[in-house]
Amino acid sequence: MEVAFASLVIGILLGLLILIIPKTRMRTKSDHTGKLQVNALTKVQKAYSKSEVALHNKRSDCWIIIKDKVFDVTSYVEEHPGGDAILAHAGDDSTEGFYGPQHATRVFEMIDDFCIGELEKQ
């Protein structure tokens, strides 16, 4: 009887933890230097300079800056509903275009999946 009660209590506590901890996708990727970036509950990220971000300005290597955060959107370029518009500010600040009227609210939810770090404070 005590074992059943203890199991029930542990089950309830685990269930509460699952509900309390935010749902986060575990992703790993390598940045351009081959260093592993992990985005999960621990969010290991790096600070990038503007000049470093500027090097990633092609369809096959596309980083953008939105509100002082750096995003590697290379894997999304081909899927972008606005076509090559995403490349207009590749390697540069895309904040103004990102917050334009053309974007549905779902982009604000999905953009964090592409975050690889922050812009260095100057």
UniProtKB/TrEMBL annotation:
It comes from Cuscuta campestris. The keyword Transmembrane helix applies. The lineage of its organism: Eukaryota, Viridiplantae, Streptophyta, Embryophyta, Tracheophyta. SUPFAM superfamilies: Cytochrome b5-like heme/steroid binding domain. InterPro entries: Cyt_B5-like_heme/steroid-bd (IPR001199), Cyt_B5-like_heme/steroid_sf (IPR036400), Cyt_B5_heme-BS (IPR018506), Cytochrome_b5 (IPR050668). Belongs to the cytochrome b5 family. The keyword Endoplasmic reticulum does not apply. It comes from the Eukaryota. GO terms for molecular function: heme binding; metal ion binding. Keywords: Heme, Iron, Membrane, Metal-binding, Transmembrane, Transmembrane helix. Residues 45-120 form the Cytochrome b5 heme-binding domain. GO terms for cellular component: membrane. This is Cytochrome b5 heme-binding domain-containing protein. The chain crosses the membrane at residues 6-22.
